[in-house]
Design goal:
This protein is an alpha/beta fold and about 550 residues long. It folds into three domains: about 180 residues, Alpha-D-Glucose-1,6-Bisphosphate, Chain A, domain 3; about 220 residues, Alpha-D-Glucose-1,6-Bisphosphate, subunit A, domain 3 (Alpha-D-Glucose-1,6-Bisphosphate, Chain A, domain 3), CATH 3.40.120; about 130 residues, TATA-Binding Protein. It contains 18 helices and 27 strands. It has a seven-stranded mixed beta sheet, with helices on both faces. Strand 10, helix 8 and strand 11 form a beta-alpha-beta unit. The longest helix is centred in the C-terminal third of the chain and has 18 residues. The protein is globular. The termini are far apart. About 50% of the residues are buried. Bound molecules: 1,6-di-O-phosphono-alpha-D-glucopyranose.
Length: about 550
């Protein structure tokens, strides 16, 4: 073996955020930057010697270069085998599934998720553990602490790496198996959903669907699942070819960034069903003709209907949502008489609840829904769930949502994002709010009494781990909420997220404009947090 040891000076900015280490591509291209972080992962993870790991990414710029470096470092650190997606491509949900299916020690996912790609865009790396879940905070913190003191990494010599053809080769003593990126995942989906019913929906009658892969990782998965296995029409997919810069788009499946999809759905001749997923395939957006389903409602509707779906026929054990996600699913859980957990933002906080079989479904307002089938949120899974539901109910997306509201009430919901603001100003805004929470309880604002004002903290009921400062909550006596939080996934300055929610039981009032009906709460949020003063912005940059 001719393993080299490369001496380095540690980097001081490798603390993982909400979902792994995300930085600009340019930062990752600095010599030794990626290698140092990968070595910190390997220094931290136990039982690495002789282990199998899964490796792949969303195909963004720098994916292939990063894979070549990671393979050489893995070989030098005693990894026995790497399962690598063909051409370096694997969606985040597919990695989670492969780790579980092949009993791997863990996996490395290369993605900055919904952040833009290309040489001027972002790159990212995250480590998932044995159950296929994002590494919990105590592991990411150990990786970070290691990254501050690391003074060398080990690497196998440079060699040609053929990652485009299914097959096997070795680097030193490590075996690399190039696997089909799609088939294991697609096979798994067939066990969870009634593909015959969905195929009938898509091929008989005049039902039309349109899926926007946003030139990101899910294109090949969508082609195999929707077209090859389910018979969707040739024109049912848009932007299905993965591109290193996502065609210059922001691969975030929401109303602001999937504009063409929105336009095509908001048309009298538009499809009955529309959907999109993000850079690495874990997020989803669900649309009907002239109709947008909020991610929070989507979770609630899934929970209410899960027992109709093949993989969940036995019923669901419990549900969980991140704190800023609307409380729509809480009402379903109450009716089903199952537990409902409220966790901090970040999929990793669901992992213990899933592993301990306390919950079957979980979701987040940030366009993420998933279940105990893997340990990541799963965009195509959510879309298949909806298609399966449409096939069973033989009704429109809009009617299904309206019937749900009629039964449970409607949680009007919006999120206002103030992007790329000065980090110091953002932290000052949050600190000022934190101080205000001490005297807000009991006060009335626009006639509504505040019953809770705090900075959300969470104690994990499975392993007793504790997390604090997870977002300022202002909750009113009528269940309305205003939540303030700083994003943990951005790479430029800070992003302030303001989440606003109001519950409406009266079915006669389920057809109001969301922004208008939440106007008073939005105004209160601006005043309490002095948003314009701190950010210099009069309006949010993105409203979803
Ligand atoms: C990541 C996490 C999600 C989380 C989201 C929040 O999503 O995986 O669990 O909800 O970040 O983002 P922020 O901190 O910016 O609000 P993704 O899709 O970027 O991996």
């Amino acid at each position: 073996m001719s393993i080299e040891t490369i001496k380095i000076v540690p980097f001081d900015d490798q603390r993982p955020g909400t979902s792994g280490l995300r930085k600009s591509v340019k930062r990752f291209q600095i010599p030794h930057y990626l290698a140092a972080f990968v070595q910190s992962i390997f220094n931290t993870v136990e039982d690495l010697q002789g282990a199998t790991l899964v490796l792949g990414g969303d195909g963004r710029f720098y994916n292939r270069e990063a894979i070549k470096i990671i393979l050489r470092i893995a070989a030098a650190n005693g990894v026995k085998k790497i399962l690598l997606g063909q051409s370096g491509i694997l969606s985040t949900p597919a990695v989670s599934h492969l780790i579980r299916k092949y009993y791997a020690l863990g996996g490395i996912i290369l993605s900055a998720s919904h952040n833009p790609g290309g040489p001027e865009g972002d790159f990212g790396i995250k480590f998932n553990t044995t159950q296929g879940e994002p590494a919990p905070e105590h592991i990411t913190e150990r990786i970070y602490q290691n990254s501050r003191i690391i003074d060398h990494y080990k690497i196998a010599p440079l060699q040609a790496i053929a990652m485009d053809k299914i097959g096997e080769f070795s680097i030193e003593n490590m075996q690399v198996e190039i696997i089909d990126s799609v088939s294991d995942y697609a096979d798994y989906m067939e066990t969870l959903f009634d593909f015959t019913a969905i195929r009938n929906l898509l091929t008989q009658g005049d039902f039309k669907m349109l899926f926007d892969a946003m030139n990101a990782v899910t294109g090949p998965y969508a082609k195999e699942i929707f077209q090859n296995r389910l018979g969707a029409a040739r024109n049912a997919l848009m932007r299905q070819h993965p591109l290193a810069n996502f065609g210059g788009c922001h691969p975030d499946p929401n109303q602001a960034h999937a504009k063409e999809l929105m336009q095509r759905l908001y048309s009298p001749t538009g499809p009955n069903f529309g959907a999109a997923s993000d850079g690495d395939g874990d997020r989803n957006m669900i649309l009907g003709n002239y109709f947008f389903v909020t991610p929070s409602d989507s979770l609630a509707i899934m929970a209410a209907n899960a027992s109709l779906i093949l993989g969940y026929r036995e019923g669901i054990k419990g549900v969980a949502r991140s704190m800023p996600t609307s409380q729509a699913v809480d009402r379903v859980a109450e009716q089903l008489n199952i537990a409902c957990y409220e966790t901090p933002t970040g999929w990793k906080f669901f992992a213990n609840l899933l592993d301990d079989q306390r919950i079957s479904l979980c979701g987040e307002e940030s366009f993420g829904t998933g279940s105990d089938h893997i340990r990541e949120k799963d965009g195509l899974w959510a879309i298949l769930f909806w298609l399966n539901l449409l096939a069973i109910k033989q009704d429109s997306v809009e009617n299904i949502v309206r019937a749900h509201w009629a039964k449970y009430g409607r949680n009007y919901y919006t999120r206002h994002d103030y992007e790329n603001i000065n980090s110091d100003a953002a932290n000052e805004l949050m600190q000022a709010l934190r101080e205000k929470t001490h005297y807000l309880v009991g006060h009335r604002l626009s006639g509504q009494k505040i019953v809770t004002a705090d900075d959300f903290s969470y104690r994990d009921s499975v392993d007793d781990s504790y997390t604090e400062q997870q977002g300022i909550r202002i909750i009113f006596e009528n269940d309305s909420r205003i939540i303030f939080r700083l994003s943990g996934t951005g790479t430029k300055g800070a992003t302030l997220r303001v989440y606003i929610e109001r519950y409406e039981a009266n079915v006669q009032k389920h057809d109001l404009d969301t922004q208008k009906t939440l106007k008073t709460l939005i105004a209160i949020a601006n005043v309490i947090a002095k948003i314009s003063e701190y950010t210099g912005k009069k309006r949010a940059d993105v409203i979803t």
